[in-house]
Amino acid sequence: MTRVATTRAELADALAERRHAGERVGLVPTMGALHVGHASLMDRAAAEVGGGPVVVSVFVNPLQFGPGEDLDRYPRTLDADLEVCAAHGVDLAFAPTVEEVYPAWPPAVTVDPGPLGTVLEGASRPGHFAGVLTVVAKLFGLVRPDVAVFGEKDWQQLALVRRMAADLCLGVDVVGAPTVREPDGLALSSRNRYLGPEERLAAVALSRTLHAAADAAAHGLAPAVDAARAELREAHKVDLDYLEITAPDLSPLPDDPAPGTPARALIAARVGSTRLIDNVPLTLGA
Ligand code: PAF
User: CB 285: neighbour CB atoms within 10 A?
Assistant: First the structure.
């Protein structure tokens, strides 16, 4: 069974003995509405800590939502989330209130994500990554994990958390785990549950676009971009926010990348009122 802690004190109590015994602690930060993708992060965390406790945080972080975004309608499904945690052997779920995480609101001190926080998702969602990094830094401080596992679906978030952990010497190994997809290619996301039946069918255009880029990448950067754009022209009900091919660390690619250059294709689009993101790795000119 998964124990539940809702306060900082309960969290510290629940971990004290295991920490004292020298066990490694794993953390999977989530906003709940857990799905098979999250379950894969739990399994990865368990493998990383080899018998040590895995903590899953379930917290819809208001600081990372902008005005007019889906903070109020974000699904809150704690009972079902606890079942997923239990099925994957999670020792402890940390499900705090907003007041427990942010005793003073708004917080006076936040984490500045720097220039990487202003592109792609950061350009479309100003303040988003300051909110993400602030809550992740708090969770790292509260749980004091040896390893924390994040999904590659949020590639920019993963890059920023890695950078924060390194630059601020937080002493946490940040591990990325591959995106889990539906059989038709749609990346699993808690927000997929907003999609109506027709939107669900339309949403597959995001992964199709990225895979078209990956398939054409062997011919170079321009063919990859062309193939992605051609795929997008076939899409219905998809309102593109961005489609970019960058270096894996999200820096711009050189004008004429050498054959074999690794890259990342990233997309964000609205399907109906639901904003979805996805990304895939590709190798240029291989
Ligand atoms: O990826 C998420 O679900 C959230 O951004 C995170 C990392 C749990 C921070 O609130």
Answer: 16
In a domain, 184, yes or no: no
Q: Tell me the per-residue pLDDT of 194-241, one tens digit each, with 9 for 90 and over.
A: 999 999 999 999 999 999 999 999 999 999 999 999 999 999 999 999
Express each pLDDT in 44-101 by its tens digit: 999 999 999 999 999 999 999 999 999 999 999 999 999 999 999 999 999 999 999 9
How far is residue 18 from each of residues 14, 56, 94, measured CA to CA in Å?
Answer: 8, 16, 16
Pocket mutation for ligand 1, best pick of 35, 136, 164 (most atoms within 8 Å of C-beta) = 136
Compute the distance from residue 256 Cα to the ligand 1 centre, in Å: 35
Q: Are residues 24 and 144 in the same domain?
A: yes
185 belongs to a structural domain: no
Q: Tell me the pTM.
A: 0.97
Mark whether 38 is an active-site residue: yes
Core vs surface per residue 214-231: b (16+ CB within 10 A) or e: bebbeebbebbbebbeeb
